[in-house]
Amino acid sequence: MPFHPRRILLTYDPAGGRCAAVVARMRQMLEDRAFEVTVAPLAEAPADLEPFTGIILGTPVSLRGNGPSAAVLEWIGQASGLDEKKVALFSAFWALPGEALPKLRARLAELGVEVVVDHAYWLARPAEGEHLLPAECMIRIR
Length: 142
Fold this sequence. Notes:
By secondary structure, the protein is α/β, with parallel strands linked by helices. The chain has one domain (6-140): Rossmann fold (3-Layer(aba) Sandwich). The chain contains four helices and five strands; from the N terminus they run βαββαβαβα. It has helices spanning 20-32, 70-78, 100-110, 132-140; strands at 6-12, 35-41, 54-60, 86-93, 114-122. A five-stranded parallel sheet has the order 2-1-3-4-5, sandwiched between helices. The two termini are 15 Å apart.
């Protein structure tokens, strides 16, 4: 049986550059695990999610720990077919991780979306635990 790499859309809110600070390394780690990765800020994310096995969605967290961002909430409200995909979440924060991931997970659950893993990246030490999300995607998005 031939091997076919799984396609993942890695999309994020670029506000403040927080998410972008971890995206390049995350992409490399996913590609090292044989995923075909499309990276795009939310505004440039493909409207058609059909070609993707999974979606990785990132939200910045404000200095006060607020999140998810309005742009992320708007995108998930408009993303057609998101409930048919396995979704991984990440946040990027400087001071406090806050409740961004639990709130985003709850909102997605209301929409019938399966969240398989989430991880908060502390930008002071972004490599700390950075392997967790790509490793879990390797197991759960197949």
